[in-house]
Design a protein that fits this description.
This protein has 245 residues and is of the alpha+beta class. The chain contains six helices and eleven strands. Helix 2 (29-39) crosses helix 3 (45-54).
Length: 245
């Protein structure tokens, strides 16, 4: 639901008009954030950043934010913080999400790199947990604002795996590791927690973190000892097969 009379998507187009942007003109993420802070201060910085990505025709991450063809084809992303207007005549066709069904399963396991496999597993885990957050904690739900969800939520040029809200409406930052969870992930998590606390949370709204890994290392457990705003979880996978009669 939009915070103001217009949605952030429509306000982005108002911003373009306000800056009198024309073909070739550029705008930075900081300029966009400053414009919104001045005119629509209730809109969160993360929501603004997510809409810039959502409305950039060449940004692969736009798929996380349910980008709509034509309606969301406003910008072309030059780098991580700079955008220009999308040029229909000269720019590549906007990226669209395509479901691909492979009919060739002839590749050997050795042909698939381990890091690519782990990336795929992590995305599967992310997708499953985002739909079943109550398995982690009763009352936990996925953050959502104006069509922007907590999956791959943008924070200062990086992305949170899952951003959620608990039953008390406090933020929960969830980081996933399909292999072992090493101690270095705690720095990443605490950085995200601090960003949400500074740029997203309202006064009195708490922010905490959760790390979920197949195996929590002793170093990570030790690093988190004494941190009352971080919890550690290990997951196990199970498969049930039902014969089709």
């Amino acid at each position: 639901m939009a915070i103001y009379e217009k949605s952030t998507r429509l306000l982005m187009k108002d911003m373009v008009d306000d800056f009198a942007m024309k073909k070739g003109d550029r705008i930075t993420k900081n300029q966009a954030i400053a414009w919104f802070n001045d005119k629509y201060p209730k809109i969160k910085q993360g929501t603004i950043t997510a809409h810039l990505v959502r409305m950039s025709t060449n940004a692969k991450s736009r798929f996380h934010y349910s980008a709509k063809p034509i309606e969301d084809d406003l910008f072309y992303q030059i780098d991580g913080s700079t955008y220009r207007l999308y040029d229909v005549q000269n720019d590549p066709y906007p990226l669209v999400k395509v479901e691909v069904i492979s009919e060739d399963n002839s590749k050997n396991e050795s042909d698939v790199k381990e890091d690519n496999a782990e990336f795929a597993y992590e995305k599967d885990l992310q997708n499953f947990l985002s739909k079943n957050l109550t398995l982690i904690e009763p009352g936990l739900r996925l953050f959502e604002e104006e069509g922007i969800t907590g999956i791959e939520y943008p924070v200062g040029g990086r992305y949170i795996d899952i951003l959620a809200l608990d039953k008390n409406n406090n933020y929960v930052v969830i980081e996933l590791k399909v292999s072992r969870g090493y101690d270095r992930v705690i720095g990443q998590l605490l950085r995200y927690v601090s960003w949400i606390k500074k740029h997203q949370a309202e006064e009195g709204q708490d922010v905490r973190g959760i790390i979920i890994a197949r195996e929590i290392s002793e170093d990570l457990s030790l690093a988190c000892d004494g941190l009352n705003n971080v919890e550690l979880f290990e997951y196990q996978l199970s498969i049930t097969l039902n014969k089709v009669e």
